[in-house]
Amino acid sequence: MASATPCPLFVRDTPFLYGVLPFSSLGKLGSPVLMTLMSETKNGEGNEECFLSFSAWRKWAFANCKLTPDEAWICFETFDLVATEDKQRRDRFLRLCMPNSETSDRDLVSVNANEFIVFLVIQKFRHVALRTSVLTERASPEFKRGSLEDESSVMDSKRLQFIKDCMDDILKILSIPSNHRIMSLPALNALELCLHVKGEKNLANLARSKEHASLSGYSSTVQSFSLAKLNIWLRTYLSGQSRSDAEERLEFSSLNKKLVLLEPHRVNQKEIVITNCSSSAFYIFGALRNVKIHGCKGITVVLSAVQGTVSFARCRRATIVSACRRITFGSCVDCTSQLWTATYPLVFEGCQSISIGPFGSLYPEMLSHFEMTGLSDISNVWHKKKLIGTWKDKDQNRTKRAASLTSDADYFPFFIPFYGSAMPISEEALVRLPENYASEVKQKLRKVTSFREKLRAPDLEHELLIKFAGYMNSQFSEWLQETGNMRYIAELTYPETDTHT
User: Fold this and answer.
1) Which residue from 177, 334, 384, 418 has the fewest beta carbons nearer than 10 Å?
2) Is a pLDDT exceeding 80 seen at residue 411?
3) CA separation for the pair 474, 478 (Å, rounded)
């Protein structure tokens, strides 16, 4: 082994951060069951690429995991989010994943079976994550705060150990059905879903290179690998830091009373992670990959276009404004959102009082960011929220309290202070409000304009203005008390510093 040039293997954290679903039945799938699925899918000796159709997966998922057709589709959709780099395939998948797509259209979709099996194995990580302090806090009203570096290090170690513990099972499941001591090239390539080779684009090409072929057990005659040797080769190089995507990520942790403004040149194609922040505002404009917002309180986050997932978890009294392919809410309380989303907004267990409204903000370069992330020609289904998990069937009252759509009477587009008007009423604007929301907003603006003109009338007496101001203040205070919005006023503070990059 010493003769080969070192080439560390890293664990890709994207599937773990954005691909683990709260379906307990998936996490309990054992190797024998997954091997059965693999055997049913593979053709012949298994040396060729094999694909799993949604029709077959839907039936299998119901029989073995009791997943509904929509939940089975969410699995396919999530897999595509963490696995697909091909823009054409991603765009096609986006169009077929619309909630109003015909079932027959979905049944025509297929995914790489080897990669999907690895994705199903990763679902077991949910049980590992739930045992860590980073992800297990549920009912406590207070959020635990810790160093982002410490939390990341813990989860890095958990992911690395998880892959090592599951390596035997993964290789056996992916092996050729007629001979479980051999693995094909397509099957090894499937490991790229969770593994990344430093400086290399293809794991299988590295493993069969002249320098590593004898160590990895590759035979050019049968174009496959010895499972035993391959296992040793992978374990030898699978070590060290597991976060392979760190260089493409911007992280913010434990900020309090801060204002952060990030412009496109800094964030395009980056992943954003915001954890344990409070009373702060983040304005992030660009074509983003994925965004994770975790354990925050009283923050405002405005995102432009996200080509993947926005994960919003364990936040309280927070506001999120975003256009994205998917957004998930987990254990969030009293949060407001304005969304443009290409797929169902997913509401997981532990959420209370989530308000969901349409994305209505405008800023320079928005159209180009939509095009860069593939959202420009995709339907917006922000209003079709979906509650995920068995909890929704146990308590109907709890379900009603979990999430609701913002009424048009209570809605107004979020104003971006750096770029002027927030009104998306131009015919040329990409992001248009639903007709009832646009009509209500226009009516409010007309009232405000008329009211402002009356207050500026030259013949208005000064004493009358003072009396009116007192009346308005008392009415506003009364409204704050009645609606419960007074708590937001109590948390209003000026940011201590500005970060503009």
Assistant:
1) 418
2) yes
3) 6
| Bridge partner residues of 281 (DSSP) | 259, 300
| Angle of CA points 211, 214, 217, to nearest 5° | 130
pLDDT of residue 328: 95
pLDDT for 264 beyond 70:
yes
**Among residues 328, 375, 291, which one has the least CA distance to residue 20?**
328
Confidence of residue 121 (pLDDT cuts 50, 70, 90): very high
Whether the CB-CB separation of 203 and 190 falls below 8 Å is answered with: no
Residue with tokens 């069969």: 208
pLDDT on residue 137: 44
pTM of the predicted model as reported, rounded to 2 decimal places: 0.83
**DSSP element (H, E) containing 249:** strand 249-253
**Distance in angstroms (rounded) separating the CA atoms of residues 326 and 345:** 6
Share of the chain above pLDDT 70, in %: 76
Separation between Cα atoms, residue 147 and residue 145, nearest integer Å: 7
Alpha-carbon distance of 79 to 70, in angstroms, equals 14
Query: Is 252 within 8 Å of 21 (Cβ atoms)?
Result: no
Q: Yes or no: say if 97 and 81 are a contact pair by the CB < 8 Å rule.
A: no
Q: Which two tokens stand for residue 419?
A: 């770029």
Helix (H) or strand (E) holding 354: strand 352-358
Instruction: Find out whether 437 and 358 touch, Cβ atoms under 8 Å.
Output: yes
pLDDT for residue 244: 46
What would the two tokens of residue 400 be?
Answer: 């009603």
- CA–CA separation, 167 vs 173, rounded Å? 10
Measure the CA–CA gap between 35 and 33, rounded to whole angstroms. 5
Judged against a pLDDT cut of 80, whether residue 144 lies above it is answered with: no
Cα separation, 422 vs 441, whole angstroms: 11
- pLDDT for 94: 61
Contact between 251 and 269 under an 8 Å Cβ cutoff? The reply is: no
How do residues 426-481 score in pLDDT, each as one tens digit?
A: 444 435 788 888 888 888 888 888 888 887 777 777 788 888 888 888 888 887 77
What confidence score (pLDDT) does residue 446 get? 84
Tallying the residues shown for the chain, one arrives at 501
* Eight-state DSSP code of residue 344: P
Residue 311: is its pLDDT beyond 90?
A: yes
φ, ψ (nearest 5 deg) of residue 304? -85, -90
User: CA distances (Å), 453 to each of 311, 354, 456, in order?
Assistant: 44, 36, 5
* DSSP bridge partners of 294: 275, 313
Instruction: Write the CB contacts of 364 (distance below 8 Å, at least 6 apart in sequence).
Output: 419
Find the distance separating the first CA and the last CA of the chain, reported in whole Å. 46
Write the CA distances from 231 to 123, 175, 222, 235, 242, integer angstroms: 21, 12, 18, 6, 18
Q: What percent of the chain has pLDDT over 90?
A: 31
